[in-house]
Amino acid sequence: MMRALAAALLVWSGAAAAAPTRVVSLNLCTDELVLLLAAPGQLASISFLGADSNETALAPRARGLPTNNGRLDSVVALAPDLVFTGGGSDRYARELAIRLKLHVVDVPPPQNIADIRRNIASVANALGRDAAGTALIAQFDTALGPTPAATRSALLLGGGGTTAGADGVGAQLLRHAGLMQQDVPAGQVSLEQLLAEPPQVIVQTKYRSSQASLGQSWLQHPALRSLPPTTRTITVDGRPWTCMGPLVAPEIARLRARLQ
C-alpha cells in the first residue's frame, strides 16, 4: 500500500513539474521574452504584434505561429496551460484568466535594469527553462557592459518629443553607453526646450519611420537643423526601446561603440 502511494506521489510530482506545452502570450513584451526563451513546440500563440517586423526584430522567429489579438477570448479555445500577460494594460485579460482557472504569469514593465533580469528569470522559470533564462541574463549583462566613468548629456528622443525619465529604466540603460539623460518634466520635451538646452547627444529612436504621423513629422521639424554643431544626433532602432527588455542591451553596445 505504501509502495503504491509512493509511486502515485512520484507520478503526480513529475506531472506537476512538467513544462507547459500550450503557452500563450498576449503582449508584445512577453512575446519577445517567450520567443527568446521557449523550447521548440512550446508556444501555442503570441500576439499579432510579436509577428510584426515593424514592432520587433524577433518577428522571423514567430513565423508559422498562431497569433492572437491580445485578448484572452481569442486564445481560450487553444486550452492554454500557461498565459503570459504584460502588466497594467492586460489587467482584464489577467483577471478573466484567473477566473477560468488558467495558469497566469504577469510580467510588468521594467522600472529598472534589475527588473529586466527578474522578468527574464520569471518567464524562464514558468516555461521550465531556467537554464535558458540564466544564459539570456548572462548575454544581456555582457552586451550591456559596465557603466563608463565619463558621461555626456543626452536625450533619448522619440516621436513627438517623447523621452525617458531621468531616473527611469531608459536613463539607466543610457548610462551604460556613457550618456546621462537630461531631466525633462512629464517625459516630453518641446522644440523650444530642446533648442534652449541642447544635450551633447540626441539618441533618436527610429520607429515605423516609413509611416507618416505627427510624431514622425516632429522629428523632421526644420527647427532641429538649428541645433549647435556640438550636439550629435545618433539614430537607433526604436523597436527594442518599446519594451526595454533583453533586446535593448545589444543596442546599448552598438551605441557605446558609435560614441567611442
3D structure, described in words:
The chain has two domains: 18-142, 3-Layer(aba) Sandwich (Rossmann fold); 152-259, Rossmann fold (3-Layer(aba) Sandwich), CATH 3.40.50. 39% of the residues lie in helices and 15% in strands. It has helices spanning 2-17, 28-37, 91-99, 113-127, 130-144, 169-175, 191-196, 214-219, 239-243, 248-259, and strands at residues 23-25, 43-47, 67-68, 82-85, 104-106, 152-157, 179-181, 201-206, 232-237. The strands form two sheets. It has a five-stranded parallel β-sheet, sandwiched between helices. A four-stranded parallel β-sheet has the order 7-6-8-9. Residues 23-227 form the Fe/B12 periplasmic-binding domain. Residues 1-18 form the signal peptide. It comes from Glacieibacterium arshaanense.
Alpha carbon gyration radius: 21 Å
* E-strand count: 9
How much of the sequence lies in strands comes to: 5-15%
Individual helix count: 10
**Quaternary structure type:** single chain
Mean pLDDT: 87
Keywords: Signal
Pfam families: Peripla_BP_2
Organism: Glacieibacterium arshaanense
Protein name: ABC transporter substrate-binding protein
Spell out the blueprint of helices and strands.
Layout: H1 2-17, E1 23-25, H2 28-37, E2 43-47, E3 67-68, E4 82-85, H3 91-99, E5 104-106, H4 113-127, H5 130-144, E6 152-157, H6 169-175, E7 179-181, H7 191-196, E8 201-206, H8 214-219, E9 232-237, H9 239-243, H10 248-259
Parallel strand pairs: 1-2, 1-4, 2-3, 4-5, 6-7, 6-8, 8-9
